[in-house]
C-alpha cells in the first residue's frame, strides 16, 4: 500500500480592495502569498505618475503587529537590541534577520511594527518568543487595510481627507500618528522616497474599500491615480 504525502493547502489571500482593483482592470499576480495588483497601466506611465503628481497603491499585505504594555521599551529593546526606541509620534527603521522593520511609536505603551509581507513569519517568531513577559503582541496583518500615497502632491492629497496637520514642518519624514482620515480612525506614517513625500495609511479592513474610493477621488483632483507594486518597486530601486 502506497502512502500519499499530504500537501498543506495555503489559500491565496486577498486585500480588502481586491474588488476595486478588478473593477479598475488591474493586472493581479501572486506575491508573498497575496494576490496583488502589479499594475493598472504601463509601469512607465505609473512611475511617471509617482514622479510628477501622486499615486496611490495597496500596501495591505505588509506584516503588521501591535505591541502594547507598561514595559514596552524593555520588550522592544530585547528584540531589537541594536535599535533606539522612537519617541511617541516618531518611528525608526531597524532590522530582524536582514529584513527591514519599521517601529511606529503610537503611544507611551504602544508600538506598531511594520515589515514586508515576506517577513511575517520571522517577525511573528521574534515577538512571540518574548511576548507575555512585559508586553503583549497582536498580529494585525489581515485585520488592517493599508494604502500608500507617494508623489509631489501626496501632502496636498492627504490634507484633503485628513484633519492631521501634514505640513512638512509639522509632520516630517518618519513621523506617525493616530488620526482620522476620510472620517475613519487609523494610523498615518510618513515615508518619503528620496525627495518625494510619501505616506502610509492603515485602518480596519472593513473600511478598506471606502478609504480606497475616498483616496481615488482625491487623487483624481490632484491629477493622480492608482499604481501597482511594479512602479513602486522601480521607484525605490
Structural class: alpha+beta
Mean pLDDT: 93
Number of strands: 14
Low-confidence stretches: none
Helix and strand string, N-terminal first? EHEEHEEHEEEHEEHEEEHEH
The value of Rg in angstroms is 18 Å
CATH superfamily of the largest domain: Probable tRNA modification gtpase trme, domain 1
Q: What's the CATH class label of the largest domain?
A: Alpha Beta
Q: Which architecture name of the largest domain does CATH use?
A: 2-Layer Sandwich
Which percent range describes the beta-strand content? 25-35%
Distance between the termini: 53 Å
**What would the CATH topology of the largest domain be?**
Gyrase A, domain 2
Q: Please work out how many helical segments DSSP would assign.
A: 7
Query: Major sheet: size, sense and barrel closure?
Result: 6 strands, mixed
Fraction in helix: 25-40%
Domain count? 2
Morphology = globular
In brief:
Helix content is 27%, strand content 32%.
